[in-house]
Each structure stands twice: as structure tokens, then as C-alpha cells.
Amino acid sequence: MASREEEKRKRREEREAQQRAKEQATKRGRLVTIGGAIAAAIVVIVVGVVLATGSGGDDEAATKAAAESGGAPIPEQQEKDFDTAVKASGCTFTEHPNEGATHQSEPFDGYKTNPPTSGTHSPEPAADGIYEAGNSPDPNNWVHTLEHGRVIIQYKQGTSEERIAQLKTLTGENVNGSPGYHVVLMENTTDMPYDVAAVTWTRTLGCETFTDETFDAIRVFRDRWVDKAPELVP
């Protein structure tokens, strides 16, 4: 059994690795980040257009929220009960056996679920945030991110730009009082059998068809399982 000092060292190394991953992703232009000033400017422009056209109320609020997250408007949440929301969406929730959490620098391709939900992974986790299509991190990195309690939303290759924009809005929603808290969005690269899926450590919400009901299913999955993992890293 690892000593307390070894455990502290491991956590420190993981925090440092996560920071390095974030810096590398930023340098490569992979990670999409929206600064507060830019988001505010977009909101001003979009809301101004909405007001000029005479729209208001719920439509204006939806447009503003979409602009703040860099996405497109999505349906407001209608269902908060987990089982009801998942059933209405036609998605499938599955809990999987834990495949372990061994750190390995060499590439690993032995995951038993698709998308992967646990197992051997890189010492460096993928950074939080939104990744543009074609720039997803390697599964070996984001499986480590799952170990840190993140919810990763993945859409299949070829998903329409409109749906991707809507998922960006969903990713930017408040979770535990913070926009986009511990939620990651990326294009799937493992040829998963779903239009869209959300994964956490040892759990999958798989949706073979992407519909408007999918948003509530992902919301309840996210809210129930965020930070439910072996390690909680801020």
C-alpha cells in the first residue's frame, strides 16, 4: 500500500501533468477557450440584433445563453428525474466493470468499452474544455481525465455543425455553480456505435439517435455523475 507521502507525490505530479497538458493544448490551438471580454461582446451583438427584430422573453434569454457559450440555442430542461429523462431520450445508461487505472507512457489499446470508461492510461490527462472537431485528444489521455471526475461528451464524426454548436451550449451550462464545470466536449475517435455519448469513470450514456430529448438525458447524467471517480482534481 502506498504511503501517505507517495500518495501526495502522485497527486502533485498529476496536477502538474494536467497543467502541462493544458498549456500544450493551448499552444496547438486545440482547446477552444472563450475569454470573458469576447463572450460579453458577442452577447451585446446578438442581444442587440434580437431586440432590433422585436424578439424577447424566452427567445432572447436562449440566444444570450447560447452566445455566452459559443454555441446555438438548445431546449430548456424539461425533465430532471434521471430514469425518466434517459427513457424519454431513447438513450441507454450502462455501468461497466472497473478496468483499472494503471499509468503507462506507451500507447494502450485494450479498452473493453467503446468509448473507453476506465483502464490503463497516460500519466498526462487531457485538459478540460471544448475541442474542435478533428483535434480530439488521445483516449489514453482523456481516460485519465475521467479518473479525475470529469464528464466527457462525445459526438460521432460527421455530426452537423448545428448539433455541435448546441453541444457547446450544453457544455457551457452551469454545473455546481460554475459554467462548464468539469465537462469536456470532443469529437469521438474510437468509432463508437452512438450519435452522441456522455461518459464518466465506468459509466456510459449512449444515444444511437441524437434528438432534442438527448439534452435532458445528458444533463441528468452529468449532474448525477460529475466528480464521481477515484480521484477528484480541481
What features would you describe in this structure?
Residues 1-27, 56-79, 92-130 are annotated as: Disordered. This is DUF3105 domain-containing protein. The chain crosses the membrane at residues 31-52. With 234 residues, the chain is α+β, with helices and mostly antiparallel strands. It has one domain (4-34, 70-225). Helices cover 40% and strands 14% of the residues. It has seven helices and nine strands, in the order H-E-H-H-H-E-E-H-E-H-E-E-E-E-E-H. It has helices at 4-28, 36-52, 58-69, 82-89, 139-147, 161-171, 214-225; strands at 31-32, 92-95, 129-131, 151-155, 174-175, 178-179, 183-187, 196-200, 203-207. The strands form two sheets. It has a seven-stranded mixed β-sheet with strand order 1-3-7-4-8-9-2. The protein has a two-stranded antiparallel sheet with strand order 5-6. A hairpin with a 2-residue loop joins strand 8 (196-200) and strand 9. Helix 2 (36-52) runs antiparallel to helix 3 (58-69). The two termini are 25 Å apart. The model is unreliable at 25-63 (pLDDT under 50).
Radius of gyration over all CA atoms, rounded: 18 Å
- The residue ranges in which pLDDT falls below 50 over 5 or more consecutive positions are 25-63
What is the end-to-end distance?
25 Å
Determine the structural class based on helices, strands and strand pairing: alpha+beta
Kindly report the average pLDDT value.
83
In total, the number of domains comes to: 1
Write a compact overview of the structure shown.
The chain crosses the membrane at residues 31-52. Residues 1-26 have a biased composition (Basic and acidic residues). With 234 residues, the protein is α+β, with helices and mostly antiparallel strands.
